[in-house]
Amino acid sequence: MFKKHKMLGFLAGLIAVVSAYYLIEDVYDDIVDTVAERLSETSASTVETHPSEVSPFSLESPIVAGQITSEYEIEAYFDKALVYIENDKLEQAYALYKEIPPSHEKAQLLSEKIIEGYYALALNRSDKGDFDEAKKWIERGLGLDANNKKLGALKIKIAQEEEIRKLVENYYQQATRQNNRGEYEESRALIQHGLSLNPSHEKLRALSKKVELALKKRQQIENFYQLALAKVNKKAYEAARDKPNSRYI
Q1: CB distance 33 to 95 below 8 Å
Q2: What is the distance between the alpha carbons of residues 89 and 182, in angstroms, rounded to a whole number?
Q3: What is the fold of 71-147?
Q4: 143, 151 in Cβ contact below 8 A?
Q5: Cα–Cα distance between 96 and 91 in angstroms, integer?
Q6: What does residue 64 show for φ and ψ, rounded to 5 degrees?
Q7: For 200, which DSSP code?
Q8: Which residues have a Cβ under 8 Å from the Cβ of 244 and sit 6 or more positions away?
Q9: 51: closest CA among 90, 10, 79?
Q10: What SUPFAM superfamilies does the entry give (predicted)?
Q11: pLDDT score recorded for residue 223
């Protein structure tokens, strides 16, 4: 009977330990979620505050960036950050990344994945012509890896495209002024320069149609004038030919 009670006591204790373990694990996961949410909210609402400067807990001894040393904690932060990255929540992932010691391999892996995410966002915005937004994500990525070749190349490409955009806009403004003055040939030349740099520029294409129409009308007027002048000259010639020479009368 004693052995039976002893065995029951042992099983009860084991169940209590297992239950406590899973309870602690659930609570810890909730804490990680809360940390990420508070960090991302603080980062989004405070323009001048970098995620590395934000305290994730409102406790007497808050965790500071890179202070986590427990492998269990690091693994939990790493796993949660991966979930954020997969759901394109890069800022939340970045906030968790900053809590892992920079020298830890998990921090290195997260850094690479976050940089890839920043690059994808920058490329997407660049393709849509939103260069300011693209440059923002590029700088975030370069903040993690200043020598990243893909980000560096995209930054150079955007700078070149911005310069082309300025040139095209300048051609458009000049062409518009020439058109308004009735200097259609000069306007056409400027339009062609602009379209050679950006064939799909909508305002230049619209102005080109307008200028070509004006040139066509001008040519029609010129043709009509020349035809009328030719008729007048012909009549004058015929009249002069048929008129008797007064000197011989």
Answers
A1: no
A2: 54
A3: 1.25.40
A4: no
A5: 9
A6: -105, 165
A7: T
A8: none
A9: 90
A10: TPR-like
A11: 80
- CA dihedral of 77, 78, 80, 85, whole degrees rounded to 10: 140
Report whether 70 contacts 82 (CB < 8 A): no
Q: For position 123, what pLDDT does the model report?
A: 97
CA 73, 77, 83 angle in degrees (round to 5)? 150
Tens of pLDDT along 111-143?
999 999 999 999 999 999 999 999 999 999 999
Structure tokens at 45: 């609402």
Cβ proximity of 90 and 60 under 8 Å? no
> How far apart are the C-alpha atoms of 96 and 101, rounded to whole Å?
11
Read off the tokens for 109: 């892996």
pTM for the whole thing? 0.61
Cα 155 to Cα 146: distance, rounded to the nearest angstrom? 12
The pLDDT of residue 45 is: 42
Closest CA relative to residue 134, chosen from 149, 150, 118, 146: 118
The segments of the chain whose pLDDT lies below 50 read: 1-5, 17-18, 20-24, 27-28, 39, 42-64, 248-249
- Paired tokens of 17: 């330990």
DSSP letter (8 states) at residue 199: T
